[in-house]
Amino acid sequence: MDALHTTGIHFAEVLQAGPPCLEKFWISVTSLADPKCVFTICFPLAYFLDRKVGVSVLWIGLVSEWLNVVLKWFLFGERPFWWVHESGLTRKELVTLRQFAVSCETGPGDPSGHCMITGAALWPLVTALTALASRHSRSLVVKLSPFGAYTLLLLAVGLSRIFVLAHFPHQVVGGILAGAALGWGLQGHTPATRTMGFFVAAALALLLGSLALHSLVIAAGIDIDW
Whole-angstrom Cα distance, residue 218 to residue 196? Predict the structure, then answer.
């Protein structure tokens, strides 16, 4: 893993050595793609356009947020900002990296929550826009434009997370793949016609499930708060 982490650090160096004008862009992307924006921005907009799509965005966002936390408990994952010092890499070679206000994230880093949750929650919105484009145009470019924008967005989010030293490249790739797979898998199981009671029960089930898993991990002698 040290070789993989070192390669990731060098990739972050290359990104940070890019044109200075890109610095504000990467920081803006990583801020705007914060998972909470799924619930405060993406969900209301999607719900306004189509109720079922909005509920799907909210449901998948909720499940992916929960699953991301659980995966991080088991996969752990170093954070570049901390690892570069703790590993002793800075004593072995010259490392030229900059710190930003959003760099010092704590907790496990694998997989990237920004990539996974955003990728999963936006999937129903992207597929809905693709269907809408297909009904109004025969152009393949127009039909594929929503997925093209989706791919570019996730790529930008992933690069921004590497740029600010919040994640290693492999954590970003894992987050993108997990998010797209989760969005694809859950879209057909959106409980759009369920009552409020179902969602309350689902929220309690997720809460109790996470507490049970947390207790099991602690009982196994694994310090998830390392």
Answer: 33
**Residue 128 burial (C-beta neighbours within 10 Å; 0-12, 13-18, 19+):** buried
Residue 115 sits at the vertex; the CA angle it makes with 224 and 5, to the nearest 5 degrees, is: 60
Q: Is 85 a catalytic residue?
A: no
Domain ranges of the chain: 1-220
- Mean per-residue pLDDT for 158-180? 95
**pTM: predicted TM-score of the whole model, two decimal places:** 0.90
Q: What is the DSSP-derived secondary structure letter of residue 198?
A: H
Q: Which of 5, 10, 85, 114 is catalytic?
A: 114
Q: Is 114 an active-site residue?
A: yes
* Contact yes or no for 58/43 (Cβ under 8 A): yes
Active-site residue (options: 167, 170, 189, 214): 167
Phi-psi region of 7 (alpha: psi -120 to 50; beta: other; left: phi over 0): alpha
Size (the chain), residues: 226
Residues 122-154: tens digit of each pLDDT: 999 999 999 888 888 888 888 889 999 999 999
- What is the average pLDDT across 167-195? 92
**Cα Rg for the chain, rounded, in angstroms?**
19
Which pair of tokens denotes residue 13?
A: 């160096």
